[in-house]
Amino acid sequence: MLETFWILLLFPLVGAAINGIFGKRFSPGLIATIGCGSVFISFAIALLTFFELLGLAPADRAVTNHLFTWIESGNFVANASFLFDPLSGVMILVVTGVGFLIHLYSVEYMRGETGYYRFFAYLNLFIFMMSTLVLADNYLLMFVGWEGVGLCSYLLIGYYFETRVAGDAAKKAFIVNRIGDFGFLLGMFLIFQTFGTLEYHSLFSTVAERFPAPEIGFGVLSGITLLLFLGATGKSAQIPLYVWLPDAMAGPTPVSALIHAATMVTAGVYMIARSATLYSRAPESMLIVAVIGIVTALVAALIAIAQRDIKKVLAYSTVSQLGYMFLAVGVGAWASGIFHLYTHAFFKALLFLGSGSVILAMHHEQDMLKMGGLKKYLPITWATMGVATLAIAGIPPFAGFFSKDEILWNSLVSGHGHLLLWVAGVLVAALTAFYMARLMYLTFYGKERFSHESHGHHDDHDHHHSGPPKEPSLFVTLPLMILGVLSAIAGLVGLPAWLGDNRFEHFLEPVFHYAYTGDGHQGEHSHSLEIGLTVVIVTLALISIFLAYRFFVKNPAIPERIAERFAGIHKLLWNKFYVDEVYDALIVWPIERISRFVLWKGIDVGIIDGAVNGVASLMQGWSNRVKRLQSGYARAYASWILFGAVLIFLYYYLAN
Amino acid sequence: MNSLDFQMLNYSALSPEIILSVAGILLMLLIPFVKREKQAKLGYLSLVGIAAAMVAVIAQWGQSDLTFFDMVFQDNFANFAKLLFLFAVAAIIATSIQYLERDSLYKAEYFSLLLFATVGMCLMAASADLIMTFLGIEILSIATYVLAGYRLGEQKSTESAVKYFLLGAFSTGFLLYGIAFIYGATGSTKYLEIAQSLGNQTEYPVYLLIGLGLIFVGFGFKAALAPFHVWTPDVYEGAPIPITAHLAVASKAAALIALLRILFQVVPSISSGWVELLWISAVLTMLVGNIAALTQSNIKRMLAYSSIAHAGYLLVGLAANNDFGAQGVLFYLLAYAFMNLGAFAIIQIIGRQNEETVEIKDYAGVGFQHPFLGLALSVFLVSLAGIPLTAGFTGKLFLFSAAVQSGMYWLVVIAVIASAIGIYYYLRVLIYMYMRDAEGEIKPVDRLSMATRIVIVVMVLGTIYLGILPGSILKLASEAINF
After folding, report:
1. Is residue B234 over pLDDT 70?
2. Is A473 on the interface with B (CB under 8 A)?
3. Is A569 on the interface with B (CB under 8 A)?
4. CB B277 within 8 A of CB B216
5. Going by C-beta distance under 8 Å and a sequence separation of 6 or more, which residues neighbour residue A101?
6. Residue B230 and residue A643: Cβ atoms within 8 Å?
7. What pLDDT digit, counting tens, does each position of B91-120 carry?
8. Number of domains chain A is built from
9. Cis previous bond, B227, omega within 30
10. What is the number of other CB atoms lying within 10 angstroms of the CB of residue B213?
């Protein structure tokens, strides 16, 4: 399959086309078969290719499929070529594997929604775009996928378009992402201008040649990497551009799981790991990446503690965990960042899908304070989410433990690491364990805080019968169980040094061949230190879980008292530090005003049409139009032209 | 070649213009013999004229000459431009037939005027003399002044025509004034002679610079560059939709192509004095176009501001002032023609009789009601927004990277910001089409005529083709800029 692995891209594309064009006439069963089947075939091809890749010698593990020359103009060349190497291999397995499970889950979850076919078409299209993003062998093609996943995300967030919230969230996601894409584009221009190519291999070898050592001070590499990082903050929801992700939860839950947890939002981490050659030579950018990462992780974890909406908690948790990944790549632990990306994909997808199962059972109620005691009704959901919670909380031997442990260890001992980064990282780990335990306790334990008769008021979802909550069908629970197993064991491929061999890291090593590694490795640290720190972290996580138990199960009055005592802080957290409001006041509002009042009503209607009847003339229609015509408004236009001409005249006259 | 020997003229250089003129006159002569209700069908005849002119252009591809008393170039640049114009006008004619029949505008002079306008545009592209350029602009303008007012009895349309005429005449004054300045400074109006008289000087007479600045006003008016764009929204809104498409695509392209030739052939050595002007105008044009488009509620007005914004992107390519930029401009003009002509063809159909439904809110639910139109319009809007795999993206990529090559980083930063703003209003239409329910019933639209359907399909395919395989057109463009 190595020579033709690119065909895996075709299946989701064809699936999207068939469902998108003809799906209206298909039965739900056929739609689901096409949607899931196409992704499954992709996954199978990816898996076959992956095993073939494993059969090669480590140095040869980078295979390119060249399809055609996309753009060729002078010295500007961009190919439609795809690269399969350990990094893109891991990514494509996550994308198609987790993607397939979520497709399967959607069969049941989305049943009965209007536009079932549309949903699967968008979802397939997303898989195609995401695969393009991770398999591209140059930045321009990566950008195609980058924009494409953004577009799909936009369409899927706005899927429940009857609700205004969804439409607004979709718009917000798109606008914020544009700011990020702007950075990506400029970064790309700067790469091409400086190195004359956008193709990974030739670019990285050129960079390694021209920059044998990291650049000192702020140079072109710092510029490139910071611009690319701006792109990453948009796509991966980091400070200052994280605001769109929590709102994006207005989309259907499978979408949240696939796009806004497991795959698309990790694209920024992937991109930086891919660009390790560039980043490793721009130490200042690395520091910024690491600091932004850890600060985001901390802020988002704090916000998550005070949220009541189950999906909002998970959304902020995602932002926080992404912050961890950026911390990892920011300290040069590329493989650890990708490792966490990979384990996170399983447990966070599982948490979202589990929350979807809860939401289904609660008839679209998302407020955790109106749940409680669901354990006996939803045993499978409870058990699988429990595994995921232990994984994200970093309890051994679940998957998250190994990846988080790697990141924290590296944040302390790597050449770019620092004690402060580690301390903050440990704090985030404790907070994570706390808010996740809170989520589990509020949802599954304690008193039932809902009534059995009617929950929510979604008349259009009448296919979910009222009555006691009950576990959905196998379509929903099977993905949960598979992801549960993966969340439990996926970390074992990357054991810490004191337990054995980190095979994951060794596997990825060839990808970072050109990355600058400093003067040999950092000094060896004793295993006892590493073990000691691990014990500290795990103990803190356990204490956090215990505290959450005390607060939310044993004595529910405590959190209320705390919230009252520290009302200010609670309000700040509940309102997410007011970031949305600040952005609105500083950016959105002024642009809108300029457009509406200065450029349109001001110049068009105000100055030109005469300020007096400006607005009115727009409304009053024809009679005023005639008046405008007769009273010579064209003269006002003419004066603009004259004004411009005079400026040009003066400019040249005075300049000489 | 200075003697008036008409035998020696290279008629092949002007064969397309001659064919178009003859076709236009023949069409007028035929009108009395055709029933009023059938007159719109004469449009098909004008398409034959266009096709013949296209053949005449292709036949002379690769030849190069300076003829008609050094007034006209025969070169690939002119050929490329002429093909572009002919293609655009063919699409406009093809969609106009249905438009005229639906709105009972039985006046076949319409097609003659379009052909004459095309003659003017072709002369602008081929001109080797400022006077010839001026004539080309005037031929184009007079025809389009009339066409803008073609919705007889509609005050909006009349207003559009009168405004366009008054302001057009006004700006032409600047153009002539500028030509006079240049003549005064260099003693000639011929492109090559002006360039020769400048030689390798580094200091230029201020009159020359002022003259260049003033002719920029004239071109800036035609191409709707800020601050000479102010007429655009009113005129575009009032004109019949196919004519709006013509103004936004074809006549804008003609002005930019004439400007491009002057930039490369008349004043290559002092282009630095120009570049600042182009730079400033590009920034203004992009920002004004994109920001003002944000709050428009009428789709014609929105596309008017959008076309201003796109003129700004094209100016970025001009300001780059290198071969890559010139190629990019030619490429983008074609890309822009595909996506904009397609978009206009669709809003014309959705607009219904007498352009009843041209508000953006009228597009609520259209995507599901008319899947073909909705999907096609989505492709055009996504391309206008500059999303990858469409012509709009590759085109912008070429323009902006040309500016990067010239070291104009700030210009590119502003351009990228401006186009990021732009995405918002294009996608707003998409939201309405697919994510809002119509207030009340969506009114049915006419059945698409075969011609309109072909136009839409061709434009969709072109938009995607240039997005995925831009190579062949880019190669043509690079052949075209070998002056």
Report:
1. yes
2. no
3. no
4. yes
5. A349, A479, A482, A483
6. no
7. 999 999 988 888 777 678 899 999 999 999
8. 2
9. yes
10. 25
Q: Give yes or no: residues A309 and A351 share one domain.
A: yes
Last residue of a domain, one of A559, A574, A589: A574
Average pLDDT, chain A: 82
Residue type, B186: T
B446 φψ region: left (φ > 0), alpha (ψ -120 to 50), beta (else):
beta
Subunit contact A641:B412, Cβ cutoff 8 A: no
- The domain in which residue A645 lies consists of 580-655
Helices vs strands, H then E, count in chain A: 28, 2
Which residue, of A541, A574, A607, is where some domain finishes? A574
pLDDT in tens, A329-351: 999 899 999 999 999 999 999 99
| A568-595 confidence digits (pLDDT tens) | 777 777 777 777 777 666 666 666 666 5
| SS3 state of residue A309 | strand
For the CA atoms of B177, B180, B186, B187, what is the dihedral angle to 10 degrees? 170
pLDDT over 90 (residue A322)? yes
DSSP reduced 3-state for B236: helix
The answer to whether the Cβ–Cβ distance between B469 and A70 falls below 8 Å is yes
Distances (CA, A) of B288 to A594, B282, B292, B309, B316: 10, 10, 6, 7, 15
Clarify whether residues A567 and A635 are in a common domain: no
- As a residue count, chain B comes to 483
Residue type at A242? Y
Query: Is A169 in the same domain as A278?
Result: yes
CA distance A467 to A618: 55
pLDDT tens digits, one per residue of B34-88: 888 788 888 899 999 999 999 999 999 988 888 888 899 999 999 999 999 999 9
Q: What is the 3-state secondary structure (H, E, C) of A361-419?
A: HCCCCCEHHHCCCHHHCCHHHHHHHHHHHHHHHCCCCCHHHHHHHHHHHHHHHCCCCCH
Question: Mean pLDDT over residues A549-578, rounded?
Answer: 74
Residues of A in contact with B414 (CB under 8 A): none
**Is residue A208 domain-shared with residue A297, that is, in the same domain?**
yes
* A-B Cβ pairs (cutoff 8 Å, strict): 172
Q: Residues A562, A599: one domain?
A: no
Alpha helices for B248-298 (secondary structure H): 252-261, 271-293
* HSE-up of residue A470 (Cα within 13 Å, Cβ side): 7
Question: Whole-prediction pTM value?
Answer: 0.83
Q: Which residue of A has its CA nearest to B230?
A: A637
Q: State residue A459's pLDDT score.
A: 41
A498 and A609 housed in the same domain: no
Q: Where are the domains of chain B?
A: 10-266, 267-483
Chain A residues inside the 8 Å CB shell of B159: 625-626, 628-629
Element (H, E) at B193: helix B191-198
Count CA atoms closer than 13 A to B387's CA, side-chain side.
24
Q: Are A314 and A344 in contact (CB under 8 A)?
A: no
CB contact under 8 A, A622 and B155: yes
Tokens of A17: 């086309």
CA B201 to mean position of chain CA atoms = 34
**ipTM for this prediction:** 0.78
A78 membership: H or E segment, kind and range? strand A76-84
Considering the domain architecture, whether residues A485 and A594 belong to the same structural domain is answered as no
Query: What is the bridge-based pairing of β-strands A63-73 and A76-84?
Result: antiparallel
Using CA atoms, how far apart are residues B423 and A271, in angstroms rounded to an integer?
A: 24
- Those residues with Cβ within 8 angstroms of residue B75's Cβ, 6 or more apart along the chain or in another chain: B63, B64, B65, B482, B483
Of all residues in chain A, the one with the smallest CA distance to B391 is A71
Does the pLDDT value for residue B271 go beyond 60?
A: no
Give the mean model confidence (pLDDT) for residues A240-267.
86
Residues A424-462 have pLDDT tens digits of 999 999 999 999 999 998 888 888 877 765 444 444 444
| pLDDT value of residue B116 | 96
Kindly indicate the confidence band of residue A523, based on its pLDDT and cuts at 50, 70 and 90.
low
pLDDT at A623 over 50: no
A382 and A247 in a single domain? The answer is yes
